[in-house]
Amino acid sequence: MELGLSGKVAIITGGAGGFGAAIAEEYAREGVNLVIADIVIEPAQKLADGLTQKYGVKAIATQTNVTQKASVQEMADAAIRAFGRIDFLINNAGLIKRRNVLDIDDAFWEQMMTINLRGAIYASQACIPYMADPQYGGQSFGRIIMMSSSSADHASAGMAIYSTTKVGLEMLGQAISKEHGHQNVFAIFPRFGIAPTAGWDFVSYANSLGLTYNPDVPDDAKRVVTEYYAKQLPLGRVGTPEEVAKLVVLCSASVMDSMINQSLNAWWGRG
Fold this sequence. Notes:
Layout: E1 9-13, H1 18-29, E2 33-38, H2 41-55, E3 59-63, H3 69-83, E4 88-91, H4 106-132, E5 142-146, E6 148-149, H5 160-180, E7 185-192, H6 202-209, H7 220-230, H8 241-251, E8 263-266
Parallel strand pairs: 1-2, 1-4, 2-3, 4-5, 5-7, 6-7, 7-8
């Protein structure tokens, strides 16, 4: 299927690893130019250079702290300096940590809400004015992808705050679509199920789920958590970052116009 994305420009927050890196590569495969924004610049720059060499797109890296408004604004400004336009914003930066309700303290609350939700607000505020302004190619096509989760539908043990941030992302996306739809800027919020990345805190997952693992064996917590979830899925396996990336890129295309301002469940068969 021809998605018609070649030559467009995407910003990916948290773009240097995990879902972000997979999304960046899938966009590059479609001919999309990239801003890979990450708090750690070295892997972001390495990824940008590699995608440019492999796919012939233009990709830049920015050192972006999504908890700092000025840093996020510079990310958007860098995209305009490099490309003159912003077509897609993927609000991907985030933390996934488990903590049971009675163990939640102010520091945990602040960390999760600031990175997972405030960061998306800052990024949206920085990019929407460019997306909507005809001077920068706006009012033609703009999509904001809110990286949501099955946790926005149902909170499991230990996921109260994470689930709250994901519901917040979806409500942010709905408001953006209603406030800026007349400028052809819309959000869509795919809800991803179990697709582990290196960023998962597998130890906190295992502890919260009551799973037994050997702390002296590298990645044993990852093994038991992955096996636990794989057994619950009809496919008999968890998802992959590459599968996530394909759906994100698809959500950027006009073929998905019927899904704008909605959640889209990608749970690998889990009901």
